[in-house]
Design goal:
Blueprint: H1 7-24, E1 28-33, H2 36-39, H3 41-56, E2 60-65, H4 68-77, E3 84-85, E4 88-89, H5 93-117, E5 122-126, E6 133-137, E7 146-151, H6 154-161, E8 165-169, E9 171-173, E10 179-181, H7 184-195, E11 199-204, E12 222-224, H8 225-233, H9 241-254, E13 258-263, H10 269-275, E14 282-285
Length: about 290
């Protein structure tokens, strides 16, 4: 925090946050974390500070993380080429083992450790633990890329009841013992739905849905799932934003109250979203925002 800010201003900022602290106390908020906010070490620290702070004020926070760049880096180190079909990573048996090792091992435990160092109490699990994420092959051409068939939410509920922050890596499994690489946004949407979360926060590398992708001031602050479909038809939601918005719509259909797409590269954007009047990013809701 800026040392030039007077104590009076700090106190004023805290009192303004009070209604939001009350509103989210004991409520479930799911954060999907990945992209550049995960690569930049300073940003990573700030995200973990936000997660720990929200937990300390009584928010039941669940962190779902990806780690695509780390998987690619490890594959390169092992001399394995990455192949993509329609933007999706082709995942053979060896690649899914690497993904499991990187996500459920290195990335997951690093995040748990960081949250603990910031004063939170975290427990890392993968989608294979307690069969949290059950999956099947999405497309034969892609190999072990999974389509979610079922969410067994009990392990996450158990951790929340024991006052832990669940930190979830998105590796799925089937009844035959195969592992699958699962899209992090999709997994977050299904997990948030199964929890009936108050809010799902999707951290991305852009400010939210923009009317004009080259103009950050054209941010759309609120959009209903019907309006989101309309924006897709108009081409305003295009490219990599299409699957993100589809995940938001899926989450709301699964039972999440609302979803926010926001820029994870902005320091403390999670706190801005949950504890200020302005919020951050684009909020996707079930019906038109009044």
């Amino acid at each position: 925090m800026d040392m030039n800010i007077s104590n009076a201003v700090r106190a004023e900022m805290l009192t303004q946050a009070l209604p939001y602290i009350k509103r989210y106390n004991n409520k479930i908020v799911v954060v999907k974390y990945g992209g550049n906010a995960m690569i930049d070490e300073q940003l990573k620290m700030q995200v973990m500070e936000d997660v720990a702070l929200l937990w300390l004020i009584g928010v039941k926070i669940v962190l779902v993380h990806g780690g695509g760049p780390e998987i690619s880096e490890m594959m390169e180190r092992l001399g394995k080429k990455t192949e993509f079909i329609d933007g999706l990573r082709v995942t053979d048996k060896e690649t899914v083992e690497i993904a499991q090792m990187v996500l459920a091992g290195k990335v997951n435990k690093t995040l748990v450790n960081l949250i603990e160092s910031k004063g939170g109490k975290a427990m890392g699990i993968s989608g294979m633990d307690g069969r949290l994420i059950e999956a099947k092959i999405k497309d034969e051409r892609l190999g072990y890329v999974g389509k979610i068939t079922n969410i067994n939410i009990a392990p996450v509920m158990d951790l929340l009841e024991k006052n832990y922050i669940p930190v979830i890596s998105t590796i799925g499994c089937d009844r035959e013992g195969n592992s699958y690489n699962i899209n992090g946004d999709t997994a977050a949407a299904f997990i948030a739905g199964a929890l009936g979360a108050e809010r799902l926060i999707m951290m991305t590398d852009i400010a939210g849905i923009l009317r004009d992708r080259d103009d950050p001031s054209s941010l759309i602050h609120y959009v209903s799932i019907d309006e989101a479909e309309e924006l897709k038809k108009q081409g305003i939601v295009s490219g990599g934003m299409i699957p993100k918005v589809e995940c938001c719509v899926e989450a709301i259909r699964e039972g999440v109250k609302n979803v926010v797409i926001m820029d994870g590269r902005v320091p403390h954007s999670i706190l801005m979203e949950l504890l200020t009047d302005e919020g951050a990013g684009t909020m996707v809701t079930g019906k038109k925002y009044e």
